[in-house]
Design goal:
211 residues; 9 helices; globular
Length: 211
Amino acid sequence: MKSQEPLVVPATRHLRRSHAERRVETRARIQNALVEAISELGFHRATAAEISRRSGVSWGAAQHHFGDKNGILVAVLVDSFNRLVAELEDQPDEGAALEERVERFVEGAWRHMGGPHYRCTFEILLNLAGPDWSAEGDPLRGNTLRIWGDIWDRFFGDADIPASRRVALQFYTVSALSGLAAMRKFEGPNAEQRRLELGFLKDTLLRELSV
């Protein structure tokens, strides 16, 4: 009787990654290393040497991709905002009640802003040296506000409130969520308290947008 032939692992074809794919991967490794370093060590100890060690990318190569440390910090800010936008893509159906829209908006924003990535982002915003991000002519500020305004209008564009009050309410919402995110560092993962705090924000939005 002929013995059974041994099982042989089939040969795999190695696909060569493009330069663009390698570039995206390297940039992501550098950004992730910065986020990890800030989360674990704090902003001021997230040094160039620490970023290189964690990412496995030399600082010279990191500078080639981002220019300097500020360039990496800004890239992380942009990535964080894009994550927030992605969480808010799931908007309610047309004609949905205001209460449902407020619920989805706050819960979607909190999924990102209540996480470790946003807490790192918040620390960057507090410590970033360089341009005045509050300056009217700053392009990053302008694009961020434009996109944030578009999201707000998708959820609450039918609210009949003055423009100045609408802007104030938008900034209040970001401030409230950022404050809750910062406090998690001290309060711990208290789910019941978080539910109450987010409920206060939802009540405020519902009241103000119903006027």
